[in-house]
Amino acid sequence: MRLVFLGPPGAGKGTQAKLLSKEHGIPHLSTGDVLREAMAKGTPTGLRAKEFVDKGYLVPDEVVDALVRERLERARDRFLLDGYPRNESQADELDRMLRQLKTSLTSVVYIHVADETLVKRVSGRRSCPKCGEVFHLETKPPRQRDACDACGSKGLVQRPDDRAEVVRERLTVYHKNTAPLVERYKAKGLLRWVDGDRPIDAVARDVSKAAKQDGGAPGA
């Protein structure tokens, strides 16, 4: 399997990619994780990325592209890409990488959830500042109010980027930059549409089925 996961912020791409990765033993390449790993290890590309992160800037496409390229060269023929590509430029670069590796995507799994559902879903999240455990006020509340089930710490917090107004802004950026990729991969016969507005296990079953539908051929 050589997959890309697409979908708006909060649709559950990371959760589903991790579940599929565990099910099939395939490397899960989350751009956020790849970025943090490269910075922690102090690789040349990681150090370049850190310069932007430390200043509060977005990491430029060319730096993200280089990080993804490094990981794809190691993963070769089995990977789940989560968070990349985010725009047409990155999609073009991914095509070039795969051609150089003499391989291609097998499927693009698109997890769809309506905007207002996402705003409600994301803005209801609360995190433990100590261990990072994530809860939801409606779907996964802590057993004790404002206390972490995992470590017992008090004072769950809402991340700044989980506020409703920030979520709406992130969705605006998504529709402008990332949503066009849905049509791009649909035209190539690679897109597999999954309804993400359901329980995690129901979505996971459909994601697993969609991932097994091969729309590409190595070297294509």
Determine the CATH superfamily: P-loop containing nucleotide triphosphate hydrolases
The string of secondary-structure elements, in order, is: EHEHHHEHEHEEHHEH
Overall tally of structural domains: 1
CATH class placement: Alpha Beta
Class from secondary-structure proportions: alpha/beta
Low-pLDDT ranges: 216-220
Quick one: how many beta strands?
A: 7
Q: pLDDT average, as an integer? A: 89
Helix content: 40-55%
Beta content: 5-15%
- Global morphology: globular
Strand order of the largest sheet: 2-3-1-4-7
The CATH architecture would be 3-Layer(aba) Sandwich
| Alpha carbon gyration radius | 18 Å
Distance between the termini: 15 Å
Q: Enter the CATH topology name.
A: Rossmann fold
Q: What does the largest sheet look like? A: 5 strands, parallel
Number of DSSP helices? 9
How is this structure best summarized?
With 220 residues, this protein is an alpha/beta fold. It is built from 9 helices and 7 strands; from the N terminus they run βαβαααβαβαββααβα.
